[in-house]
């Protein structure tokens, strides 16, 4: 039975009770007012009856005491209507927040299986991807009180625009670039994790539209600018010669293959098939495993490095036996760069850029270069297409009469 609760005077006359006074808005949809004290404050609630199961679901709308009493009924009706429409489109009946979506996404990644790099081993969970996403979401989303606890159904473009601006305003908090603005490419990776979490919530019915983040979490254009530092083969040789032995063999492999430093550091002995001189690249941004047939000289380097190691051991390790990572190779590479008299901005990634540059400049088709380096043809074209133009110009010169 419906009760008049749409005016202040009507609500003031209601005797206090635990059960709300309900007003029917449509079939199966009610708005309720719980009178807490006679002529005093009350709380609003929405009730929805699922037509397929007959089950009732409730959503607290709060006291709405931040509004004048005469505006509270309309505000409660609007909030209830939005919830009913959300449920009607198949949305989650429970209240889900941005924080819930982020945790859900990390658990989703943990549950995914990826092939183990060791032959014969059981598949392992994708813990590395889950850990990386968890750290980004913790540092840049869950720590932001203005967005973390917002209900997904109440997310707006304005809320996410504010979050994006705060993200871009942050600076590096550690490492050699401490205090400096964060690179646009880094900001993009942070937004990618957040966008993926929200998209999963959408796919799982926690929210019924991506309108709030469809444009506000788009990547920053041209963030991955062309890396201008290039080392010739002679300079790469000088760098290797000035590096300590454990780093030198790692740099030698980097100078021989167009791989990301992290992908090379993650390789294990089981990834190298010595019979065929083939290398399986597993942990990389490219996603799926790929095989690379190594030239004889490079295969010999890998074979020597893998000698007397178990299949699960890393191929390239530091002198203390630990695997290389970006934190451990940064300072030694910088010292080797200085000792070799090379450009100060040269980094581990410079070797990848230099090898890709050579492959493109030597005329290897862009599809093969992309497959070797674990990236897209579009990315190679964007950053190295100018080299193809130089080759084309040289070819045209041969046609001149």
Written account of the structure:
The N and C termini lie far apart (about 95 Å). It is built from 14 helices and nine strands. The protein has about 400 residues and is of the alpha+beta class. The protein has three domains: about 10-90, Double Stranded RNA Binding Domain (2-Layer Sandwich), CATH 3.30.160; about 100-205; about 235-395, hpI Integrase, Chain A, CATH 1.10.443.10. Helix 7 (about 235-240) packs antiparallel against helix 8 (about 245-255) and helix 12 packs across helix 14 (about 375-395).
- Biggest beta sheet attributes: 4 strands, antiparallel
Q: Kindly give the count of domains.
A: 3
Query: What class, by secondary structure content?
Result: alpha+beta
Read across the widest sheet, the strand sequence of neighbours is 1-2-3-4
Average pLDDT over all residues: 86
Helices and strands in order, then pairings?
Elements lengths: L7 H5 L8 E6 L2 E7 L6 E8 L6 E7 L6 H20 L9 H14 L1 E2 L9 E2 L1 H16 L14 H13 L14 H20 L29 H10 L2 H12 L4 H5 L6 E2 L4 E4 L8 E4 L2 H11 L19 H15 L7 H14 L4 H8 L3 H21 L4
Antiparallel strand pairs: 1-2, 2-3, 3-4, 5-6, 7-8, 8-9
Helix pairs in contact: 3-4, 3-6, 4-6, 7-8, 7-11, 8-12, 12-14, 13-14
Short précis:
The chain has 401 residues and is α+β, with helices and mostly antiparallel strands. Helices cover 46% and strands 10% of the residues. The chain is elongated and about 90 Å long.
Identify the notable features of this structure and list them briefly.
single chain, 401 residues, alpha+beta, Double Stranded RNA Binding Domain, hpI Integrase, Chain A, 3 domains, three-stranded antiparallel sheet, 9 strands, 46% helix, elongated
């Amino acid at each position: 039975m419906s009760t008049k609760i749409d005016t202040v005077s009507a609500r003031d006359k209601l005797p206090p009770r635990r059960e709300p006074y309900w007003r029917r808005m449509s079939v199966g949809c009610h708005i309720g007012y719980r009178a807490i004290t006679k002529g005093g404050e009350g709380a609003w609630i929405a009730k929805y009856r699922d037509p397929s199961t007959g089950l009732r679901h409730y959503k607290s709308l709060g006291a709405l005491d931040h509004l004048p009493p005469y505006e509270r009924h309309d505000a409660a009706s609007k909030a209830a209507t939005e919830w009913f429409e959300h449920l009607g489109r198949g949305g989650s009946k429970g209240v889900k927040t941005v924080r819930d979506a982020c945790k859900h996404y990390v658990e989703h990644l943990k549950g995914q299986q990826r092939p183990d790099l060791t032959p014969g081993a059981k598949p392992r969970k994708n813990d590395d991807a889950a850990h990386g996403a968890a750290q980004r979401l913790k540092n840049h989303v869950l720590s932001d009180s203005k967005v973390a606890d917002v209900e997904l159904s109440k997310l707006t473009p304005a809320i996410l625009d504010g979050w994006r601006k705060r993200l871009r305003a942050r600076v590096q908090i550690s490492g050699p670039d401490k205090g400096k603005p964060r690179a646009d490419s880094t900001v993009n990776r942070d937004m990618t994790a957040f966008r993926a979490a929200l998209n999963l919530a959408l796919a799982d019915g926690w929210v019924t539209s991506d309108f709030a983040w469809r444009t506000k979490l788009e990547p920053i254009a041209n963030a991955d600018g062309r890396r201008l530092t290039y080392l010739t083969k002679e300079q790469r040789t000088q760098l290797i010669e000035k590096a300590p032995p454990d780093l030198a063999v790692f740099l030698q492999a980097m100078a021989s293959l167009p791989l990301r430093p992290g992908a090379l550091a993650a390789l294990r002995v089981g990834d190298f098939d010595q019979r065929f001189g083939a290398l399986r690249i597993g942990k990389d941004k490219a996603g799926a495993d790929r095989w690379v047939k190594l030239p004889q000289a490079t295969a010999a380097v890998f074979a020597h490095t893998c000698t007397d190691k178990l299949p699960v051991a890393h191929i390239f390790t530091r002198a203390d036996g630990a695997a290389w990572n970006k934190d451990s190779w940064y300072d030694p590479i910088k010292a080797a760069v200085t000792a070799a008299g090379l450009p100060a901005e040269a980094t581990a990634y410079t070797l990848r850029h230099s090898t890709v540059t050579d492959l493109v400049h030597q005329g290897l088709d862009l599809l093969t270069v992309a497959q070797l380096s674990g990236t897209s043809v579009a990315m190679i074209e964007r950053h190295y297409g100018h080299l193809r133009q130089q080759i084309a110009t040289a070819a045209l010169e041969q046609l001149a009469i």
